[in-house]
Amino acid sequence: MLEILTSILVRTVVAGTPLLLGTMGEVVTERAGILNLGIEGMMSFGAVTGFIVTFTTGNPWLGMMAAIIAGALISLIHAFVTVSLRANQVVSGLALTMLGIGLSGLWGKPYIGRPLSVKMHAIEIPFLSKIPILGKVLFYQDAYFYLSVGLGILVWFVMKHTKVGITVRSVGENPKAAETMGINVTMVKYLCVMIGGAFAGMAGAHLSTAYSKSWIEGMTSGRGWIVIALTIFALWEPSKAFIGAYVFGGIFVIQYVLQPLGISPNLLAMLPYLTTLGVLLFYGLSSKGQRKMSAPATLGEPYIRGSR
Amino acid sequence: MERIEILEMKDITKSFIGVKANQDVNLVIEKGDILGLLGENGAGKTTLMNVLYGLYHPDKGHIIVNGKPLYLRSPKDSMKAGIGMIHQHFMLVQKHTVLENIALGFDEAPFFFPQRYMRKQIEEYSQKFGLNVDPNKKIWELSAGEQQRVEILKTLIRNADLLIMDEPTSVLTPQEAEELFDILRKMINNGHSVILISHKLEEITSICNRVMVMRKGKVTGTALIKDVSKVDLARMMIGRELSGSLEKKEVKPGKPMLEVSNLSVNSDQGLPIVQNLGFNVLWGEIFGIAGVSGNGQREMVEAITGLRKSVTGSVSLEGKDITNLTARDIHNRGISHVPEERIKFGTVANLPFFENSVLKKHHKTPFSNRMLMNYPNIRDHAKNLVAKYNVDAASISVPVKNLSGGNIQKLILGREISSEPNLLIAAHPTYGLDVGAAEFIRKELINCRDRGGSVLLVSEDLEELFQVCDRIAVMFEGRIMGIVDPNNCNIDGIGLMMAGLEQQNQGENI
Ligand SMILES: Nc1ncnc2c1ncn2[C@@H]1O[C@H](COP(=O)(O)OP(=O)(O)OP(=O)(O)O)[C@@H](O)[C@H]1O
Ligand SMILES: [Mg+2]
């Protein structure tokens, strides 16, 4: 029994890792007022890039780096189209999803059925990993897990306790006010979109070079959309993104545990979205909650300098 | 950075689609000057200052500081050059705390934990200049006056050489304005200079040493304050004389129109802010509410108009209970409302002028029939408003956000008054209006009363209240301190009540 529990927890944490990474990125992007629905595409793109680089160099760390850069670069398209050209953010994000999935399918084709010789292996933290249950769950994981936690805390800290955080949040809430205080709104928006892309790329590489070790088309299987739901679930707060990522990760795992018992996986796949709706409902019922629930004030709106 | 000894703006021209906001404007300001900038609504004052602040790039013309040209690509450059600006509309992030708003873009704030550093700075400056704000409050929790204080702190802390203030006193009480002027005088003695935009001639003449007047994008005159009178200034500004006192018809007040009794309302933070308030507004009278903003006026108005739930008490209109009905219901029963925050609650900023001109009645004939809007009628209505209320708009199809502040106010008032309401509730209706427009609005309020309707006028401008009201109640901390007859009382007594003293002289009571 204990073993089953441990294994469920371990897999929950593993499943939560790409969700956590993706959500942290999307939180940063949306806090700057840009809605990027292209997570699924950026993740796929990161996944294929990470896989190819790891495959050719035999070094999963290089794969990770490449995926991060790839994610940031492909997100530049979204930044250019929505910030500089002020196009509709929803449309651009959806296009980015198609593009990313398409490119990854194309480039990944030759690698189907050719597993990696090395993948990102688990790192055992001395002593701590010996703690019953928790040791296995928290201190015997691959580098992506430790990095995602570290980066998540970093994002939380930067957003809450630094000048950069104030700047980013202000740009999303009231770009005009930020501009009058000398902030380069366009640059902040570009950077935040790219940070979102970098995180999504990294999440993708986790899937293709740590979670599994072979390339499968469509391996992100909707995680990008879960990230979007998660960002809302977390009410744009990094701290809540931690909870959300592992809860949703758990739901992912439970799908496989419950499937043999005859519960349709399709039903279970709905759970993340249902949970998000539930949370919105919960907050929506009190006026205090409603205030908390509000998205960054200018989310999705283009910013035009000098207009009023 | 060297200090600003003399700053010149030369031949500044700036156009927007359809409007020449500035045409060949020249401006000079020297160290130690307080330059008053006057002009009607839409004259181009804000535009000119936005050019000086680096927010707008002029189509033509340049800026020279101490004999050297100054190129401004963005406000960052102007802040570096020692120019600070308080904008006409608050440039604050509503969901953020005072601390975060002041730390935004502030170079001296440390990278880590800027809030902690700012708290010390804010305390120091608040004490030095007597500007009290709670640094941990969120902006949306603050009254307009308090928000203005945050804006002032923001520029003071940045220690600007040249301070631009675009109508900073519109939301301040006379005392607060006086305090602000003390601060300005202190700054001038330290070698700073100030450009002050205001529609209050009184302020301009009492604090400025020079004045520049604009009309329709051009400079119509500059002068030393000691050489001109208020009458001269008004003439330069609106091109005609002001008519002075306002005519009121003799109207015998009738039965109560609006009865408010025992009303208690909570603030956004859930704390009681209006407590057991009661008063009547009679048919055919203008009932004024005086008081420093933030004493519950906004919440009271919101409770009466159905925008906020009251905790206890009742409100009735013509004897019928309307407590806590929906805003639309209350509107349909004949109460019109000119809200305090006009851009946020009075208009839909991105919609064109003509659509805004029928808000709240857009679903009724003649503006719509069943499902479809009747645009020809709507446009006609908008054109009528423009003509009747003198709204200065490039066309009736421009988004309302492109109108100057004063013209937005004219639109709202025109819209509300033209529906001939039984009761008009107006909160600070002349806030930010030039003297000509303010006079016009006051006349409209009186017209509304003369045709038998009632007006509930919330204002901080005592002069205005005395000019138009039949009775004035003074509100302090959510209670009525006393009700006076403006023809038979002195301003000092009201001042004391505004500061929280109960009415003493029984003779004044009515
Ligand atoms: N960003 C903009 N886009 C389009 N038109 C504008 C813009 N800014 C100002 N205008 C127009 O330029 C003219 C001058 O406006 P401005 O705000 O400078 O007037 P103002 O003198 O400050 O008036 P007020 O006393 O009402 O504040 C107005 O007709 C206004 O409609
Ligand atoms: Mg202005």
Give an overview of the whole structure.
The complex is a heterodimer of chains A (308) and B (510). By secondary structure, chain A is mainly α. Chain A has a single domain, classed as ABC transporter involved in vitamin B12 uptake, BtuC (Orthogonal Bundle). Chain A contains 14 helices and two strands. In chain A, strands 1-2 form a two-stranded antiparallel ribbon. Chain A is globular. With 510 residues, chain B is α/β, with parallel strands linked by helices. Chain B has three domains: 6-238, P-loop containing nucleotide triphosphate hydrolases (Rossmann fold, 3-Layer(aba) Sandwich), CATH 3.40.50.300; 244-334 and 423-510, Rossmann fold, CATH 3.40.50.300; 345-420, no CATH class. In chain B, strands 6-7-8-3-9-10 form a six-stranded mixed sheet, sandwiched between helices. In chain B, a hairpin with a 2-residue loop joins strand 4 (60-65) and strand 5. The model of chain B is unreliable at 506-510 (pLDDT under 50). Classes of the chains: A mainly alpha (308), B alpha/beta (510). The complex binds adenosine-5'-triphosphate and magnesium ion.
Keywords:
heterodimer; A: 308 residues; mainly alpha; ABC transporter involved in vitamin B12 uptake, BtuC; 14 helices; B: 510 residues; Rossmann fold; 3 domains; six-stranded mixed beta sheet; 22 strands; globular; disordered C terminus; binds adenosine-5'-triphosphate; binds magnesium ion
